[in-house]
Amino acid sequence: xxxxxxxxxLPYAYDALAPxxxxxxxxxxxxxxxxxxxxxxxxxxxxxAMAEMTLEEVVVKSGNDASLAKMFNQAGQAWNHIIYWExxxxxxASTPSGKLAEMIDRDFGSFDxxxxxxxxxxxxxxxxxxxxxxxxxxxxxxISSSNAGNPLAMGKTTLCGVDVWEHAYYLDYQNRRPDHVxxxxxxxxxxxxxGERLEDAL
Length: 202
Ligand SMILES: [Fe+2]
Prior knowledge:
By secondary structure, the chain is mostly helical. It has two domains: 23-87, Fe,Mn superoxide dismutase (SOD) domain (Helix Hairpins), CATH 1.10.287; 98-201, Iron/manganese superoxide dismutase, C-terminal domain (minor pseudopilin epsh fold, 3-Layer(bab) Sandwich). Helices cover 50% and strands 11% of the residues. A three-stranded antiparallel sheet has the order 2-1-3. A hairpin with a 2-residue loop joins strand 1 and strand 2. Helix 4 (98-108) crosses helix 8 (191-201) and helix 5 runs antiparallel to helix 7 (177-187). The chain is globular, with a radius of gyration of 16 Å. The structure holds fe (ii) ion. Fe (ii) ion is lined by residues 29, 33, 81, 163, 165, 167-168.
């Protein structure tokens, strides 16, 4: 792959998230879908000032300029999937602790209630998009975004994102999006890593 933006390697083995997410899904999702966003982004930034920016800068700029919508679709998706892969961990903490646990209890009532609302946010995201746990003004919130949308472009802190494009779950769960999202939140997300993201932002 050539160009200023380089697809990061998957931070674990392709079968590391099975059975929640199969090796086949992870392979296609990382090596084909995620790679394709990078390829397209590199083509779009070629010869522009954006080729000198960080990926985060491109996401924020293109996400707030309607004339750069095509760029945002690729840059947003390139960035969203980094968040997605990094937050998953085989053997990671399955419940939050510390400040994250405190803030989830304060803002949602309980971890179980937050997860239930997270699933609902994902289920009610119409078509392709993402459901996010984010922080804005010191408060946690759940956000539904279409296509490549993300909290970064909205000026909020991104804590956890679940991809609800069909490519994320259709091989393993077919149309059962709620089952997939619940399994990811219960058994694939490393909540201690999400807690570190929160601490870094406080
Ligand atoms: Fe995806």
